[in-house]
Specification:
- The structure is a single chain.
- α3 runs antiparallel to α4.
- The longest helix has 18 residues.
- The protein has about 230 residues and is an alpha+beta fold.
- It has two domains: about 50 residues, GTP Cyclohydrolase I, Chain A, domain 1, CATH 1.10.286; about 130 residues, GTP Cyclohydrolase I, domain 2 (2-Layer Sandwich), CATH 3.30.1130.
């Protein structure tokens, strides 16, 4: 079992406002799925109620009385729903019968995630590409994979890597790339409050490590899309 003794947890004061990433895997305890979703909602409802009461909010007010339950449901079923492995997208592949041999790019995929350091939103765009080695995947499945890994407390670098690793697994090829450009509200709305800055991360696998292939991908991202 993972350690749950608060006395043995790392001291957050050692990190301050630093941006820390500890590995490719989301840091889950061994007992993360012992409780059912309904049990988690019940516990989180109580915790949110305690936070709001501590802040001095009047939870008998009509506007506030349902907030603890709403927040709990949102955490478990929506914005942190990607923690549940049962929600992992079923990514069926198909034979590349039309023998398309160039890269396929899906750009401007909306990213809504949550910074695991302050539990504030990360909002941006993901751009994905792969080169088929015989299999292709439905376009919407790439969006669903991004959404799945975004819906959890995240660090952008880790999310970027997880998306690429999942697509490599599904497609059976190393030739996958992903670039994410996102705003972090922990930077934009608090702390330094720099409203204009965004964070760009990239993960390149297989042939995308070659300069020419990588440049082609980045050129596709920068193409103006007109309808």
């Amino acid at each position: 079992m993972a350690n749950t003794d608060p006395a043995l947890e790392p001291n957050p004061d050692l990190y301050g406002e630093d941006h820390i990433s500890t590995g490719e895997q989301t840091p889950l305890r061994d007992d993360a799925f012992v409780l059912s979703e309904e049990e988690k909602i019940e516990r989180i409802t109580t915790s949110v109620r305690d936070i709001l009461l501590t802040l001095g909010m009047d939870l008998t007010d009509d506007s506030m009385k349902g907030t603890p339950l709403r927040v709990a449901k949102m955490y478990v079923k929506e914005i942190f729903g990607g923690l549940n492995p049962e929600r992992r997208p079923k990514s069926s592949t198909f034979s590349n019968k039309y023998k398309y041999g160039e890269m396929l790019v899906e750009k401007n995929i909306t990213v809504y995630s949550t910074c695991e350091h302050h539990l504030l939103p990360i909002v941006g765009k993901a751009h994905i590409a792969y080169i088929s080695n015989g299999s292709v995947v439905g376009l919407s499945k790439m969006n669903r994979i991004v959404d799945y890994y975004a819906k959890r407390p995240q660090v952008q670098e880790r999310m970027n890597i997880q998306i690429v690793r999942e697509l490599q697994r599904v497609l059976g090829t190393e030739d996958v790339a992903c670039v994410i450009d996102a705003k972090h509200l922990c930077v934009n709305s608090r702390g330094i409050r720099d409203v204009d800055s965004s964070t760009v991360t990239a993960e390149y696998g297989g042939r995308f490590k070659e300069e020419g292939i990588r440049r082609e991908f980045l050129d596709y991202i920068n193409l103006e899309t007109e309808f």
